[in-house]
Design goal:
Length: 150
């Protein structure tokens, strides 16, 4: 499971020209799921993201989590995070999980965030053609991979 986590001032998802979800200050989480992912990956990643200290304290030091600033989260599925560009010019998505594996894990990730935090959690729609808008704060952008826990 791979996530791109962006600290945002605000973010939103539009589907069919309609706003589907929007948040104010918090985290935009682009989530890619691969076939080998499990509920263990879901739990580890959700806990890691919720406890990231990437928001500024009173001294301007990144020392606070999203919960500590009463932030919000917007989760958007993005299978292209598992693209391989090793060969040729067209990315391969063979590592990305098919919907029958990815959808339950995507839903479990959102549910886990809700269970382990007090944050407001919004989400896109798995597989939908979405337009994501954001104001990146900092910018602060992190890439987290459950298969490479650096």
């Amino acid at each position: 499971m791979r996530a791109v986590v962006q600290r945002v001032k605000q973010a939103s998802v539009r589907i069919n020209h309609q706003t589907h979800a929007e948040i104010r200050q918090g985290l935009l989480i682009l989530l890619g799921i691969e076939s080998k992912d499990s509920l263990e990956d879901v739990q580890w990643l959700a806990a890691k993201i919720i406890h990231l200290r990437i928001f500024n304290d009173a001294q301007g030091v990144m020392n606070l989590s999203a919960e500590e600033i009463n932030g919000q989260c917007l989760v958007v599925s993005q299978f292209t995070l598992h693209a391989s560009t090793k060969k040729g010019k067209r990315p391969s998505y063979v590592k990305a999980a098919p919907p029958e594996i990815a959808i339950p894990l995507y839903d479990a990730f959102i549910q886990t965030l809700k269970e382990i935090s007090t944050l407001t959690i919004q989400s896109g729609v798995f597989g939908a053609d979405m337009q994501v808008a954001l104001i990146n704060d900092g910018p602060v952008t992190l890439i987290i991979d459950t298969k490479n826990k650096e």
